[in-house]
């Protein structure tokens, strides 16, 4: 099957695909048949990057060279001295922009520089302005790429900012099987490599560990072994970018001496070149390739949970139900799932309202403790009607 971009008639060389489903928005930058950037957003819980807040300084922390700032909703952010926090005292109220989303158990990183002087400085901490979402950020970064959306309201929202000529409303899904497969892979800790090898992704609280498993190539000649390692370099850089992995990153290649691994550093740097946030540091004493990437957006494993959280499973099931509702407009559907999955879905504002807006009937819930998360079933509601 051709990529969604080609089916929609736009060039596949650079296309922004926006797939909207109840409670979730998935955005892909697709170029030449390859996924180059990926975002998964829950509009009810935006990551906040680019948001402008009115904040109040609550404490100076000399050891961290910055100040903590109270934001709307009992949220606390950190403003470094280098980003406008110097000489601020407790109680100071000022507008601030979120430059790094809350992640890893830490609050958002803030900046007070580069903001308009006329922003409000009165009143309690509050959100002044939302930052752009992924589709708008990609549209700004790739000014010639068309946007293809599969949701009328989403297409209208994007057209209001980008103009009617740049946004196209598709009759079918924005993601075809190829794009869906790429997004499914982003939720997995294993990435297949040519020749039967695997790249294993292991996030930890301290760092991201990437490991290369040569698989069947382990018993072949050295050339096959080296080929898997070479493929792993390019795929590691790509997965780091797609998954928004950040902070310290260590890559353990399969076998080889320290000298042979050091010889592959130029190839890793070339693979990392398109990502301005990623820097290759070098080789550690244990022969691990060391990288570091600037934190901005939450890594996908935090968005999705690892293994996928009950909410992620619930939204995937609701996405399937939405497609079923379109295929069977007269059907009353039920979602049978573990109670934790149903509770997570009820707890996400807007998701069920989004489903009801696009379906003839609201979806009903059937708790089934025998089903583990990931085994959700979409069925006719009548046999389980209360």
TrEMBL record:
InterPro entries: RNA-bd_AU-1/RNase_E/G, RNase_E/G. Keywords: Endonuclease, Hydrolase, Magnesium, Metal-binding, Nuclease, RNA-binding. Residues 101-126 are annotated as: Disordered. The keyword Methyltransferase does not apply. It holds the Pfam family RNase_E_G. Its cofactor is Mg(2+). The keyword Hydrolase applies. Residues 178-295 form the RNA-binding protein AU-1/Ribonuclease E/G domain. This is Ribonuclease E/G.
